C-alpha cells in the first residue's frame, strides 16, 4: 500500500483516565493506519475525549465543536468524533445539536472505534453501550514503542458510591477491576518500553478487587518488577483505605509518599447530604494513621464549596479541616449542578456566595502548598527526570512527593532517578542541586 497515513488529532479534557483512554484510542486507530498529529488543521479525524464532571467542562465540548466548523467546511471528508463522558451522558443529543459530528463513542466501548470508523461510509455512528466483554479484552497488546518515563495504567473503573453531586457512576458505570495478571503484564511491557513510574488509575482505585489482597496486594506484586521504581495510585475514597494499604505506605519503598484522598467538605451535615458515608473525624483519624505509617506523606484532596444547603458555618468546618490536615496540594471547585444527580433537585447556594467561599478556600490551600514546598528546602529527595528545562543545562522532573523540581543536570539523566538537594522553592516548583 502506498497510501499516506491518515492523521488523527485527539484533544483530551478532564481527568488522567481520559489521558490514558486517549492513548489507547490512538493505539487502536494506529491499527487502522492512523498516525497522531498535534494539529487539528492537518487531521483526517478529530476526536474530542470529553469530561462531564462539571457543567463548564461539558459546555467546552460544544464550543470546541463550534470552532471546528470551518475545518469541516474546508475538508468535507474530515471525521469528527466525540468520546468520553459527555459522549456517554449525552449520546444522541450531541448528534442532534451538532450535525457535523460523525461518531459518538462512550468510555466503555472505544475498542469498537476502528469498526465504527469503517462503518462511517454507511452513516453516522453512536455507541454508548456498556458491553459485557471489557474493552481491555479487545485491546490486549500495547504497541511496542519507546515511552516517557512515567505512565498511567488503568486498573479499575467506575463507581458504586453515588455521591449526591457526581455523574461518574452514570458515565463510567459500576465498579470493575482489571485482573491483576493483566495489569502486571501491562506494567512489565511499560517498563520494557522505558517507563520507571506508573500511576495506577481508577475512579475508586483503592476499591480495587482484581487481586486477593486488594490494591495493596497489587502494589506488592508491581513492586517486584525490576526497573519499575515508583508506584502511585489515584483517586482513592476514604472508606476504601484498608489496613494493608495504609501499612504499604510504610513498608513498600516503591510506593511514593503522596496520596490524593478527596474529602469534599468538612461539615458532617454536608458530608451526609453528599452521601459520602464518612464524617470529618474519621477522615482526620485516617490521615493520622497514614502519617503514622509514613510521616512525610504529602496529602492532596478535592473540595466542593457551595453544595446545596451549605451554610457559612458548614463552610467554616471545611476551612477547619483543611487547617488540621495541612495539604501539600489540592483541587477545589464550586458545586456545579449535574442533571440526573440527586443534589441537582435541591435548593442551590447563590453563585456569588460560592465564588467568595472558593476564593477563601483557595487562598488557604495555596498558602499550605507554599508551606509544603518551602518545607522541602534543605532536604535531599529522589527526582525522576523527565525532560529539559527552559534554562540551558537544566532538567525537570518530579520528586517523590510529586513536586516539580528543576536542577542543572546532564540530558542523559532523562528517565533516571537521581538524588537532589532542594535549594529553593518557587510558587509551583522547587529548584535543587544533584548530590
Ligand atoms: N460539582 C463540582 N465539583 C464536582 N466534582 C465532582 N462532581 C462535582 C460537581 N457536581 C469534583 C469532586 C471530585 C472531583 C473529581 O470533581 O471534588 O472529587
Ligand atoms: Fe463521584 Fe463519589 Fe464516586 Fe468519587 S466516590 S467518583 S465523587 S460518586
UniProtKB/TrEMBL annotation:
> Sorted alphabetically, which PROSITE patterns does this protein's record hold?
MTTASE_N (PS51449), MTTASE_RADICAL (PS01278), RADICAL_SAM (PS51918), TRAM (PS50926)
- One Gene Ontology CC term in the entry: cytosol
Q: Which Gene3D superfamilies match?
A: Methylthiotransferase, N-terminal domain, tm_1862 like domain
Q: Tell me which residues make up the Radical SAM core domain.
A: 145-371
- Looking at the record, the residues that make up the TRAM domain are 374-435
What reaction(s) does this enzyme catalyze? N(6)-dimethylallyladenosine(37) in tRNA + (sulfur carrier)-SH + AH2 + 2 S-adenosyl-L-methionine = 2-methylsulfanyl-N(6)-dimethylallyladenosine(37) in tRNA + (sulfur carrier)-H + 5'-deoxyadenosine + L-methionine + A + S-adenosyl-L-homocysteine + 2 H(+); N(6)-dimethylallyladenosine(37) in tRNA + (sulfur carrier)-SH + AH2 + S-adenosyl-L-methionine = 2-thio-N(6)-dimethylallyladenosine(37) in tRNA + (sulfur carrier)-H + 5'-deoxyadenosine + L-methionine + A + H(+); 2-thio-N(6)-dimethylallyladenosine(37) in tRNA + S-adenosyl-L-methionine = 2-methylsulfanyl-N(6)-dimethylallyladenosine(37) in tRNA + S-adenosyl-L-homocysteine + H(+)
Q: Which residues form the MTTase N-terminal domain?
A: 6-122
Q: Does the keyword Transferase apply?
A: yes
The record's similarity note reads: Belongs to the methylthiotransferase family. MiaB subfamily.
Q: What is this protein called?
A: tRNA-2-methylthio-N(6)-dimethylallyladenosine synthase
Q: What is the lineage of its organism?
A: Bacteria, Pseudomonadati, Pseudomonadota, Alphaproteobacteria, Rhodobacterales
Amino acid at each position: 500500500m502506498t497510501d499516506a497515513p491518515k492523521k488523527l488529532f485527539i484533544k483530551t479534557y478532564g481527568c488522567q483516565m481520559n489521558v490514558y483512554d486517549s492513548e489507547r484510542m490512538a493505539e487502536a486507530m494506529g491499527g487502522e493506519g492512523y498516525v497522531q498529529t498535534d494539529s487539528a488543521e492537518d487531521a483526517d479525524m478529530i476526536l474530542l475525549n470529553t469530561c462531564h464532571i462539571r457543567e463548564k467542562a461539558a459546555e467546552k465540548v460544544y464550543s470546541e465543536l463550534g470552532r471546528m466548523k470551518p475545518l469541516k467546511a474546508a475538508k468535507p471528508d474530515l471525521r469528527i468524533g466525540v468520546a468520553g463522558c459527555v459522549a456517554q451522558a449525552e449520546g444522541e443529543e450531541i448528534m442532534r445539536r451538532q450535525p457535523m459530528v460523525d461518531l459518538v463513542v462512550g468510555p466503555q466501548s472505544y475498542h469498537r472505534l476502528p469498526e465504527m470508523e469503517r462503518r462511517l461510509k454507511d452513516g453516522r455512528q453512536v455507541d454508548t453501550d456498556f458491553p459485557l466483554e471489557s474493552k481491555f479484552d479487545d485491546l490486549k497488546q500495547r504497541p511496542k514503542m519507546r515511552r516517557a518515563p512515567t505512565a498511567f495504567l488503568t486498573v479499575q473503573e467506575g463507581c458504586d458510591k453515588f455521591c449526591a453531586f457526581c455523574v461518574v457512576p452514570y458515565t463510567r458505570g459500576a465498579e470493575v477491576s482489571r485482573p491483576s495478571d493483566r495489569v502486571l503484564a501491562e506494567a512489565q511491557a511499560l517498563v520494557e518500553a522505558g517507563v520507571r513510574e506508573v500511576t495506577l488509575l481508577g475512579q475508586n482505585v483503592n476499591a480495587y478487587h482484581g487481586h486477593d489482597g486488594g490494591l495493596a496486594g497489587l502494589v506488592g506484586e508491581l513492586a517486584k518488577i525490576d526497573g519499575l521504581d515508583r508506584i502511585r495510585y489515584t483517586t482513592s475514597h476514604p472508606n476504601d483505605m484498608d489496613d494493608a494499604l495504609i501499612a504499604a505506605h510504610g513498608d513498600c519503598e516503591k510506593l511514593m509518599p503522596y496520596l490524593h484522598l478527596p474529602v469534599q467538605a468538612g461539615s458532617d451535615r454536608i458530608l451526609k447530604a453528599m452521601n459520602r458515608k464518612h464524617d470529618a473525624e474519621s477522615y482526620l483519624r485516617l490521615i493520622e494513621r497514614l502519617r503514622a505509617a509514613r510521616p512525610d506523606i504529602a496529602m492532596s484532596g478535592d473540595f466542593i464549596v457551595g453544595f446545596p444547603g451549605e451554610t457559612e458555618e458548614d463552610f467554616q468546618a471545611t476551612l477547619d479541616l483543611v487547617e488540621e490536615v495541612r495539604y501539600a496540594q489540592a483541587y477545589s471547585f464550586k458545586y456545579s449542578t449535574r442533571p440526573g444527580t440527586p443534589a441537582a433537585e435541591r435548593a442551590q447556594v447563590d453563585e456569588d456566595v460560592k465564588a467568595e467561599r472558593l476564593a477563601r478556600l483557595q487562598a488557604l490551600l495555596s498558602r499550605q502548598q507554599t508551606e509544603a514546598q518551602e518545607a522541602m528546602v534543605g532536604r535531599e529527595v529522589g527526582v525522576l527526570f523527565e525532560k529539559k528545562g527552559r534554562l540551558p543545562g537544566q532538567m525537570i522532573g518530579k520528586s517523590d512527593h510529586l513536586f516539580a523540581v528543576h536542577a542543572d543536570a546532564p540530558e542523559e539523566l532523562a528517565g533516571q532517578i537521581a538524588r537532589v538537594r532542594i535549594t529553593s522553592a518557587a510558587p509551583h516548583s522547587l529548584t535543587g542541586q544533584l548530590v
